Amino acid sequence: MKGLFLNLLTIKDLRSKFLFTLFILFIFRVGSYLPIPGIDPVALRSYFKSQSDFSITNYFDFFSGGAFSNFSIFMLSIGPYISASIIIQLLVYSFPSLKKNARRG
Q1: Quick check: 13 pLDDT over 70?
Q2: Domain containing 53: what range?
């Protein structure tokens, strides 16, 4: 274990990758606490307090890392990207021009 930390401090490439990972984690944690403009935080807190402990919103908040209860910028995570990708893949079979573009890459 001691050798791992020594390598982390001495090898420049490993150190830069580790610091980049810490930076990205920091950005994600800060972004999960920045609320979306126009959302009333008091009303949102009262909504979450009124829910039972086993409601679907509490589970969604748990799996989003607490970002859903803050209604933060990063609460959506990768979901919209995956949904858009599935929709585009389905539309490729419906429209010939999209199919031609998909074959080109």
Answers
A1: yes
A2: 32-76
> Which residues are CB-neighbours of 73 under 8 A, at least 6 positions away?
31, 32, 34, 35, 36
Average confidence score pLDDT of the chain: 81
Whether residue 47 contacts residue 40, with contact meaning beta carbons closer than 8 Å, is answered with no
Mean pLDDT, to the nearest integer, of 7-33?
87
Query: Are 75 and 65 within 8 A, CB to CB?
Result: no
Number of domains into which the chain is organized? 1
**What was the pLDDT predicted at 21?**
94
Gap between the Cα atoms of 86 and 56, Å rounded: 24
